[in-house]
Amino acid sequence: MLSFSNMSPSDGQKPTIPAIGFCEEKARLQDEFLMAIHELGVLLDEQTRAVIENDTEFSRFDVLIHAAQEKKERAKYAWIAHVESHRCEG
């Protein structure tokens, strides 16, 4: 249970905010990062399968893999930026 006894304005200090155990935005950004990793993995698996099966057009995945890698990087840095700015590492 949260205690607000430290919020008395008579002591001249600003009230402290209790640590939050769950950050919904952090969780959302982490899910986006994980999904981007998964999507990249699927494309890499498909390209690997194409190479193993001697598909001469295996390079058709290159542009998709590049876009997926960029999406993963954007998601990763959005998550990191949020954690650093909001200090919700827990």
- Binned, the helix content reads 55-70%
Shape: rod-shaped
Cα-atom radius of gyration: 22 Å
**Contiguous runs where pLDDT drops below 50 for at least 5 residues:** 1-8
For the sheet with most strands, the description reads: none
| Helix run count | 2
Q: What's the number of domains?
A: 1
Mean pLDDT: 84
What structural category arises from helix and sheet content? mainly alpha
CA distance, first residue to last residue: 19 Å
Assembly state of the chains shown: single chain
Strand content: under 5%
The count of DSSP E runs of length 2 or more, i.e. the number of strands, is 0
How would you portray this structure in words?
This protein has helices spanning 24-52, 62-86. The protein is mostly helical and 90 residues long. It has one domain (22-86). The longest helix is centred in the middle third of the chain and has 29 residues, at 24-52. Mean pLDDT is 84; it is low at 1-8.
